[in-house]
Specification:
By secondary structure, the chain is mainly alpha-helical. The protein is built from 23 helices and 5 strands. Helix 14 crosses helix 15 (398-435) and helix 15 crosses helix 16.
Length: 599
Amino acid sequence: MDEQHIQARLIALLRQDNIRLWLEPFTTDSGDAELQKIQELALKYAPVTGFTVEDVLSSLEAIRSDTSRKDEGNKEFRETSVATLELHLPRAEEGQKKKRKVHLKTKLDITTQELKNRISEEFKYKHFNLILSGKKLSLGMRLDEQNVKNNSKIMVLNVTSDEVKNEMLEEEEKTRSQNEGVQRTQKGFQILSERDGSEDPATTPFLEIADQKGNPLQIPNDERKALILAMGFHEKGRSLMKKREHSAALCHLLLADEQFNKCNSALLKTVDNYAVLQLDIVWCFQALEQLDCLNDARQRLSRAEECFQRCYGEQQSRLQLIKGHTGGEDVLFLRLYLLQSVLAYHDGNKNQASHKLKEVERLFGQLFLDPEKITQLMGLGFSEQDARLGLRACRGDLSEAVLHITQRKKERKETKEREREKRRRRLQDINTLVELGFSKRDAARALHQARGDVDKAYGILLDGAEAQTQTQTQTQSSDRQVKLDQLVSYGFQVDVADSALRLMGDDLELATQMLLDHQGAVPPELLSPSPPSSSSEEPSTSSDSTVSVSSPLDEELVNEVLEDIPRHEEDYLDVTLDEEQELMMHIRSRLDKQTTSSG
C-alpha cells in the first residue's frame, strides 16, 4: 500500500513539473539511468512528500525503468502482438519485505495452463495459482478471454500439493454453492415480482416499492419487476456484507446493479437505493483490496454523490421536508467521504485524502452514540436498531428520540394496516370480476390499469372480451369455411359435412375419416344431444390456477429470500460504524506517519 502511495505521489509531482524520466537528462540514449540527475530529483521531492530520500530515489528509479520498459513493450505489442506481463513472484525467503517482480513476454491467445507451464519451467515453481485483479485465472481459458492485457500484473501464489487438491474441491464447492445461492435468490424474487396483490394478504407474501416513509409508489409493472429483482439482490448482498462475506456479497450487488440499469424510470432519481448500492459495491472493493477497480470505484462514488444530491436536495433540504429530520442519512455521507479519502490516498493526493478524512471524523463524532442512552431506550422496550436510528435522527437527544421512535412505530403500523385493507378491498374487487366470468389474472390487470376503480376495470374487461371474441369468431369462421369447402369438394353434402365438422371439433381429418367409415353419413347416435364437457367451461381460468397456487418449492424459495428483507425500512441506515472506524483509523495512521516523517 505504501509503495503504491509513494509512486502515486511522485507521479503526480512529475506531471505537475512536466518531467519525463524516460527521456534526457534522466535517461541516456542507451536507456540507462542518469543517477546524479535522479538523485537531485529525490533530494527535491523527499521533503515535499514526507518520505526518506532513499525511498523516493528507489521509487523514482522504479517509475523510470517501468515507464521505459512499458514504452518499448507497447511498441513491441503493436508490431508483433507479443505482450509483456508483470509477474509478482512469491517471496524468495522468509522475512523479505518485497516480492520479486519480473516481466514475461508472451502471446495472449494461449491458455492459463500453457502460461503456468512456462512459469514452472523458468522459475521452478511446482504448485501455484495465477491471480489477476483478485481472481484466479482458469486453466482451460485463454488469457485474452480473462481480460489479461499487455502490462497486466499477475500474482504467482504458491500452494502445497495438498492445498492444490483441497483448493480445487473447495473452489468447486464454493462456485457451485454461490451459483446456486444466486439462482435461488433470483427465483425467489422473480416469484414475488410476479405477484400482483390479488392473493390473500393474510397468507401470501407480497412486495411493494415504497418511498422513504414506506408509502407504496405507482410504477409500471415491467419496471416494478426489475426493481424488485434489483432490490432483492441488493438486500441479499447487504445481508452478506453484515457477515463480512464481501466476495459473495459483491457477486449479488453487481447483479443488483445490472437490474437497476434496466430501469429507465425517473424513480431512480428520486429514491436513494441506487446511490446506496454504488457505495456498497465500492465498500466491497476496498474490503477485498481490489485496487485494480479504482477507476470503476471513482465513477460509482461520483454517481452516488450525484444521486444523493438529487434525492436529498441542497443541504439535505428535500429530505428534511419529506422525513422531518436528516440525522440518519449522515451515515451514508460518512461512508462516501471515507471511501473518497481512501481513493485519494491511493492516488497519492495526500491533501484531498486528509480533507475528506477530516469530514469523516467530524461526522463520526456526531454519529457515535452514547451506549448508556441506547441501554436506556432498550429498557423502555425499544429494539437496539430503533434506539440507534432514533438517537441519530434526533442528534443524540434522548427525550426527542423517545417521541420520534414512538411516532415512527405508529406511522409504520398505520401504513401496514392501510396496505392490508387496500389489498383486502382489491381482492374483493377481483373476486367480484371473477364471478362475472373473467379470469383472476385478467381481473387483476384490469384493476391495475383502472387504478383500483372496479367499474372502469369491468368496462376494460368487457371491451377486451368483445374484441377478443370478435377476432376469434372471425378467425374461426374463416377457418371453418375453408374446411367445409374442402369436405364438399370431396363429394359430401353440405349439411352432412357441417354436422361432421361440428361433432369432430372442426378437425378436418377426423370428420373426413368418420364420413368415409359411414358411407358419407353421420351415425344417428352421434346426433343425439349430450351434456357439455366440463373441459369446455371457462378455459381462460384454467391457466390462472398456476398463478395463485404455489408449489412447496416456490414457497420455500420465497420464504428464504424474505429472510433477507429487513423489517425496518431504514435498516440500510442502521450501522454500528465498527468497520468504518477501523478503516478511518487505518487511513489516519498512514497520513500521520507521512506527516511525522516529513516534519
